[in-house]
């Protein structure tokens, strides 16, 4: 449980393991249930296009997300994958939603073992492919 008392649903954990171990999904978007007591799966996708994932993030509401980010390593070293955790809190979301999502994040983040990078986004430019790639490159030492 988090500081806000929010729990992570079994469905949320299963979906993550399906993404991480089974490669069943490319992305998962999580939300708080209506009672704000549990983090649940909002949607999953097998779509490879990163732009499609970003388009699934709501313009005016908060979400958590996980994306299996694939990128090219320089000097012809091939492709790599990192599981990226997103805390999506757009500037246009209500202050209450931002506060509840911020105080509940740790419960989900701690439950998801195997996250390579964490991204906090308040607008779409912060979750753009190039921005995320730059952060991954900094954290892995690839340039």
Describe the model.
The protein is α/β, with parallel strands linked by helices. The chain has one domain (7-140): Severin. The chain contains four helices and six strands; from the N terminus they run E-H-E-E-H-E-E-H-E-H. It has helices at 10-20, 50-55, 95-111, 129-140; strands at residues 7-8, 27-32, 38-45, 63-73, 78-88, 117-121. The longest helix is centred in the last third of the chain and has 17 residues, at 95-111. The termini are far apart. The mean pLDDT is 92.
Architecture blueprint of SSEs:
Layout lengths: L6 E2 L1 H11 L6 E6 L5 E8 L4 H6 L7 E11 L4 E11 L6 H17 L5 E5 L7 H12 L3
Parallel strand pairs: 1-3, 5-6
Antiparallel strand pairs: 2-3, 2-4, 4-5
| Low-pLDDT segments | none
Classify the helix fraction into a percent range. 25-40%
Task: Quickly count the helices.
Answer: 4
Total count of domains: 1
Mean pLDDT: 92
As a whole number of angstroms, the C-alpha radius of gyration is 15 Å
CATH superfamily: Severin
The CATH class assignment is Alpha Beta
What is the ordering of alpha helices and beta strands? Answer: EHEEHEEHEH
Apparent shape: globular
- Between the first and last Cα atoms, what is the distance in angstroms? 38 Å
Structural class: alpha/beta
Please indicate the percent range of residues in DSSP E strands (runs of 2 or more). 25-35%
Keywords: Actin-binding, Cell cycle, Cell division, Cytoplasm, Cytoskeleton, Nucleus
Pfam families: Cofilin_ADF (PF00241)
Family: Belongs to the actin-binding proteins ADF family.
Protein name: Cofilin
């Amino acid at each position: 449980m988090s500081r806000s008392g929010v729990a992570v649903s079994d469905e949320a954990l299963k979906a993550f393991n399906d993404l991480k171990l089974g490669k069943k999904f490319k992305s998962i978007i999580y939300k708080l249930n209506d009672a704000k007591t549990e983090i649940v799966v909002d949607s999953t996708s097998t779509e490879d296009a990163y732009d499609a994932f970003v388009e699934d993030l709501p313009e005016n509401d908060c979400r958590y997300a996980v994306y299996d980010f694939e990128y090219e390593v320089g000097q012809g070293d091939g492709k790599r994958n990192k599981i990226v955790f997103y805390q999506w809190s757009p500037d246009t979301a209500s202050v209450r939603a931002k506060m509840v999502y911020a105080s509940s994040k740790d419960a989900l983040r701690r439950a998801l073992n195997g996250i390579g990078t964490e991204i906090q986004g308040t607008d779409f430019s912060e979750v753009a492919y190039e921005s995320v790639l730059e952060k991954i490159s900094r954290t892995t030492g690839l340039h």
